[in-house]
């Protein structure tokens, strides 16, 4: 069940909720699919199978793309609640869930010549300081 107010979905944690005029109660049909989006090989919908883990739906969608951050996965439930995959727990999947796989953050590659140049400059500065201190 969903409740929307002013075209915004309200996330319900229980059914103790005060309705206002113009609130809409939406009772969706069982759609039987899970949406998989983001950094996977084939975005789309996968048939819902009870008790199947998160990894099942990712594999059915073709698996992770080369740009996927396997540690940044969110599951959005039909009621609007969101659970983030943690290293110690994986969200369960229910009928109508949406799985989102986020991309890895771009990191500038390390240039070894730049590192070597900075280290040699630091060593030269330290040597100069030592020479000056010992005089």
Give an overview in words.
With about 140 residues, the protein is of the alpha+beta class. It has one domain: Outer membrane lipoprotein wza domain like (Outer membrane lipoprotein wza fold like, Roll). It is about 20% helix and about 30% strand. The chain has two helices and eight strands, in the order E-E-E-E-E-H-E-E-E-H. It has helices at about 55-60, 110-135; strands spanning about 1-5, 10, 25, 35-40, 45, 70-75, 80-85, 100-105. The protein has a five-stranded mixed beta sheet, covered by helices on one side. Strands 2-1-3 form a three-stranded antiparallel beta sheet, with no helix packed on it. The radius of gyration is 26 Å and the shape is elongated. The protein starts with a strand and ends with a helix. The mean pLDDT is about 90.
Q: Report the major sheet.
A: 5 strands, mixed
CATH superfamily: Outer membrane lipoprotein wza domain like
CATH level-two architecture: Roll
User: Helix proportion of residues, in percent?
Assistant: 10-25%
CATH topology: Outer membrane lipoprotein wza fold like
Cα shape: elongated
- Provide the CATH top-level class: Alpha Beta
Radius of gyration: 26 Å
Number of strands: 8
């Amino acid at each position: 069940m969903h409740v929307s107010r002013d075209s915004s979905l309200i996330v319900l944690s229980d059914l103790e909720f005060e309705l206002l005029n113009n609130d809409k109660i939406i009772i969706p049909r069982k759609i039987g699919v899970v949406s998989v989006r983001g950094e996977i090989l084939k975005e789309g919908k996968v048939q819902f199978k009870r008790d199947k883990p998160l990894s099942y739906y990712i594999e059915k969608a073709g698996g992770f793309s080369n740009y996927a951050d396997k540690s940044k996965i969110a599951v959005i439930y039909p009621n609007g609640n969101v659970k983030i995959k943690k290293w110690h727990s994986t969200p369960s999947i229910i009928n109508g869930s949406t799985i989102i796989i986020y991309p890895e953050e771009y990191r500038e590659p390390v240039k070894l010549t730049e590192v070597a140049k900075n280290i040699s400059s630091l060593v030269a500065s330290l040597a100069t300081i030592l020479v000056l201190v010992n005089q």
